[in-house]
Please model this.
Amino acid sequence: MMDFSKLKPARDVAIVGIGSTEFGEHWNKSLRELAGEAGSKALHDAKIDPEEIQLLVGGNMSGGMFVGQEHGAGLFADYLGINPKPSMRTEAACASGSVAARVGFMAVASGMYDVVAVGGAEKMTDVSGETATSVLAGAMDQENEAFHGLTFPGVYAFLANRHMHEYGTTREQIAMIPVKNHKNGSLNPIAHFKNKITVADVLGSALVSDPLRLLDCSPISDGAASIIMVPAEKAKDYSDNPIYIRASAQASDSLTVHDRRDITTLDATVWAAKEAYQRSGLTPKDINFAEVHDCFSINELIAYEDLGFAKKGEGGKLIESGDVEIGGRIPINTSGGLKAKGHPVGATGIAQLYELVEQLRGEAGKRQVDNARYGLAHNVGGSGATVVVHILSNER
Amino acid sequence: MPEFAVPFHWRNFRKRYSLIGSRCPVCGRYFYPERHICPVCKRTVKIEEVMFSGKGKVFTYTVVRVPPEGFKIYAPYIVAIIELEEGAKITGQVVDCDPGEIKIGMPVEAVFRKIRSEHESGIVLYGTKFKPAK
Model:
């Protein structure tokens, strides 16, 4: 494994503007309207005009399958007034947004551009739930997984059954994760779900893919989010409270889950986290709060272990301890996570960074983490073939 | 998913109708499906083609109750990762087994079965499933 601590970007990068739509079922808003709303809000927040933007990078998993719209980059650039500057779309399934952020980060860090808008958008509710399930299944190995009728809940059910088998993790422990995330979502004005649920609700909800039930699964949501990046040395020109990107890291693993070294671990999370810790010079103990990829409840539990917040096999103990609640040692998914905030797949990675920035600015209202200094975002593409980890701080 | 032209399925018939995989001559590991490069050794060597016996045991499983398009009439059905006796793993359905009976470690063997049909007059897709071994 290479040592990333010696690889320094040419310059530091700061976030000076954020914008997001509410997440949910937006029957009255199209993909372009969602992206336009989030982008405009980020521009207003940074107090800059579209003509100052030099590059647009947008994450979108499947505009083509969800609304028949490919070439989203061209659409968004036009709709946001970015033309004639370049725009591009990134796609890494549910990590499309984080990859966009990472490309934007590299563009600014390298010195290639000074003012970059990155975003993520997905419009998922214009197709039936069955069709959406099939579109999302496009992010797995078509010929060797989806061909056999496997679904995404099914993939994560594989992980859950094996984690329970190897480590004695209980169904109740796994159910505590969506309960916590709904509690946090109830405090978030832009969350898809603002209702609280109980462990009994989770265990009494319909089985989707044994042992996972409906309330273990993130919803099908519409939404978009955007952020504006500039070089750190110019950040104060745009914002009184810029947030600095201390690490941007990414790793890959086999697309086919049966080829993984260990099915109870997302090795790509372990590698991306290691890279992020090395690049930032931080350790898991330094992180004050995190947004992690709870597409399915079990994946948050596994992320506790893979990110170094719990020992391998002890994710269940961590959720039971209360340490991951707001007010605890390391609050996780203060936004409500994918489960309660919602999961418009291409927007999710940017939405995680949006929550980190709100927390680090001290603008998270009832969800505010005390003394938030370092926040980590963990975004998974599909079943873990792509994982992106960012670490942000309010200190340069 | 779109409805694909015949070659999309035709070129996969050999792979779907038999359990062809790869063996790395350097580390000796087996893989399914075939690969050009060993993901563990990552060396530029010629990978060997192998035919698996089809015997193995359930490594992990799920019962799909909310199926994707094309699988509605089969739900609920079991999908599992099978650890083949050669060491490679493979994903497939487990049939002739009650959803309440499936367990990690259960011995299974490969069977040739219909997977689904595209629509009433469309292509009928066949492939490998697994059933409990006697």
User: Anything to note?
Assistant: The longest strand of chain B covers residues 107-117.
